[in-house]
């Protein structure tokens, strides 16, 4: 039997703990089915944050997953496994399991290169999803879920992702959840946060794919609190197609990413350019000293020849040159033309670069560091709030799925009591933020931005939009905005806006109280 204290050791913070307590307390007051659902919520609350990597077919999702984990383990490009959901979670021993739709499991050996095999040699139709347990430290506080690509017309993929994410059972000790039926499982399944992968050019399709993903992962809204986006394959962007890029690929990618951020708003706060392939090669040990040697040889070619070879992949591999064309093909697969160009450029500036230093340069060129930093800032730092909000959403969904009105009311009341506590205010603010950014509650644009600012950060200066200003200005501004939102709540606002306004008022009030406390 799992107790509240067992769970608390692994909970992300006080908000998750409060939701866990609620689940434990309600256990005895609800039907066996709902109670089973609550146990599942409890288990998920104490597991690492679940981040799904989502996007269109062949946008580079699996490549990015490998880069993030720091190991080339997810099959990319072809094979049936790219059509399956794979959950990468922390384990003390590397192990891969196929989970069948009927609940059976089968251990899957890694292939000769240490990857999950691209084809299973099993009845594909019977397979639910794949669970990969890896010793990689990144996974200690982040479970990464690789998803099949969603195309705009690909209803089958959408249905499959829905089914698979819904059926996903997070870990080994599931004796307790065996009595969980599909409805309940769907109510608690689904990712808690999303990393959207988009690429150049297909914006309308990306939009549709993202909408499809949100639909597939059930009711949980993705918003700037729990979603970030990357513009992947930044290396393949033709700079001449982007005004103002000055012929620079990375600058073109950054400009394009800014544009896409506008079209994806408010689903995500911003879009970061990245070169998943370079990141994967640099992070997963794929870049070898033999590769570095080949690049050094290429760096000695004369300018005219080199420029010629960089024109296209075909010319690069077929042009007459001392580096064997098989070696060139390998470089292309690992770095693509842009990465090769970057490496040779670096070597021309400093011919003595070691293989390690060159790998470092490639990693820098990939943009992965910024993505990691943002993942930390957005996901890890807010894991408690994100998990607690997802947990509460599941509890609500479970109660709603129950036919028992009395039970529904008891759960509803308990949630109200929880949310009324001062320490749960952060949850209310997250909820308000999601309501506004998802468009469920319409707000004038300037007010919506203010809600996003106040709810989107844990740093007071950022919340007030006044970083670096003197304390007395912050205090005065917090008080002024607290007053403004209170009167907006009482006059001017629609009932839905009013509920949001009360929460924002309280947020400013708490900021004001905290700032005054600091003043001593
Ligand atoms: N040039 C370049 N190629 C990339 C990049 N990222 C991925 N690729 C290539 O794009 C192809 C597809 O990559 P995957 O990671 O399999 O894409 P995916 O989104 O997981 O594909 P599905 O799971 O089949 O939808 C592979 O050949 C990758 O090597 C990148 O940043 N630049
Ligand atoms: Mg894939």
Automatic annotation (TrEMBL):
Lipid metabolism as UniProt keyword: no
Q: Which residues form a coiled coil?
A: none
**Family annotation (SUPFAM superfamilies):** P-loop containing nucleoside triphosphate hydrolases (SSF52540)
Ranges for domain Dynamin N-terminal come to 51-210
Q: Which organism is it from?
A: Kibdelosporangium persicum
Q: Which UniProt keywords apply?
A: GTP-binding, Hydrolase, Membrane, Nucleotide-binding
Protein name, UniProt field: Isoniazid inducible protein IniC
**Does the keyword section mention Methyltransferase?**
no
Alphabetized InterPro entries for the sequence: Dynamin_N, Mitofusin_fam, P-loop_NTPase
Q: Where in the cell is it found?
A: Membrane
């Amino acid at each position: 039997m799992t107790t509240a204290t067992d769970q608390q050791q692994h909970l992300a913070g006080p908000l998750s703990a409060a939701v866990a307590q609620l689940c434990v307390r309600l256990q005895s007051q609800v039907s066996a089915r709902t109670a089973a659902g609550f146990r599942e919520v409890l288990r998920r609350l104490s597991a690492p944050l679940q981040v799904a990597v989502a996007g269109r077919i062949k946008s580079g999702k699996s490549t990015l997953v490998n880069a993030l984990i720091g190991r080339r383990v997810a099959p990319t490009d072809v094979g049936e496994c790219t059509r399956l959901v794979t959950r990468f979670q922390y384990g003390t021993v590397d192990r891969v399991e196929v989970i069948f739709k009927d609940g059976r499991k089968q251990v899957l050996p890694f292939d000769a290169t240490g990857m999950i095999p691209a084809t299973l040699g099993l009845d594909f139709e019977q397979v639910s999803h794949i669970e990969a347990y890896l010793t990689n430290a990144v996974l200690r506080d982040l479970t990464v879920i690789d998803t099949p690509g969603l195309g705009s017309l690909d209803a089958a993929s959408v249905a499959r992702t829905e089914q698979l994410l819904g059926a996903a059972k997070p870990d080994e000790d599931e004796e307790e959840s065996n009595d969980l039926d599909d409805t309940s499982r769907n109510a608690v399944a689904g990712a808690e946060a999303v990393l959207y992968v988009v690429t150049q050019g297909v914006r309308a399709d990306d939009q549709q794919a993202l909408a499809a993903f949100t639909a597939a992962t059930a009711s949980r809204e993705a918003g700037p609190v729990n979603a970030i986006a990357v513009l992947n394959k930044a290396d393949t962007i033709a700079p001449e197609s982007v005004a103002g890029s000055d012929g620079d690929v990375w600058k073109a990618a950054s400009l394009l990413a800014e544009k896409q951020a506008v079209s994806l708003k408010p689903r995500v706060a911003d879009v970061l350019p990245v070169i998943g392939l370079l990141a994967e090669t640099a992070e997963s040990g794929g870049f070898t000293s033999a590769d570095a040697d080949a690049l050094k040889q290429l760096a000695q070619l004369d300018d005219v020849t080199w420029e010629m070879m960089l024109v296209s992949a075909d010319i690069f591999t077929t042009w007459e040159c001392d580096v064997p064309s098989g070696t060139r093909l390998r470089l292309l697969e690992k770095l693509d033309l842009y990465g090769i160009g970057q490496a040779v450029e670096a070597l021309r500036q400093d011919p003595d670069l070691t293989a390690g230093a060159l790998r470092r340069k490639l990693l820098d060129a990939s943009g992965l560091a910024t993505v990691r930093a943002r993942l930390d800032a957005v996901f890890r730092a807010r894991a408690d709030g994100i998990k607690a909000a997802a947990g509460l959403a599941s509890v609500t969904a479970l109660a709603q799925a129950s036919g028992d009105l009395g039970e529904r009311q008891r759960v509803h009341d308990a949630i109200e009591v929880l949310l009324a506590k001062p320490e749960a205010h952060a949850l209310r603010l997250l909820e308000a933020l999601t309501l506004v950014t998802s468009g469920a509650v319409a707000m004038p644009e300037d007010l919506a931005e203010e809600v996003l600012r106040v709810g989107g950060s844990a740093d007071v200066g950022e919340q007030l939009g006044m970083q670096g200003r003197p304390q007395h200005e912050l205090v005065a501004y917090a008080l002024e905005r607290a007053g403004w939102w209170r009167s907006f709540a009482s006059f001017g606002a629609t009932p839905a806006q009013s509920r949001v306004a009360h929460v924002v008022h309280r947020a400013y009030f708490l900021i004001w109280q905290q700032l005054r406390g600091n003043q001593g």
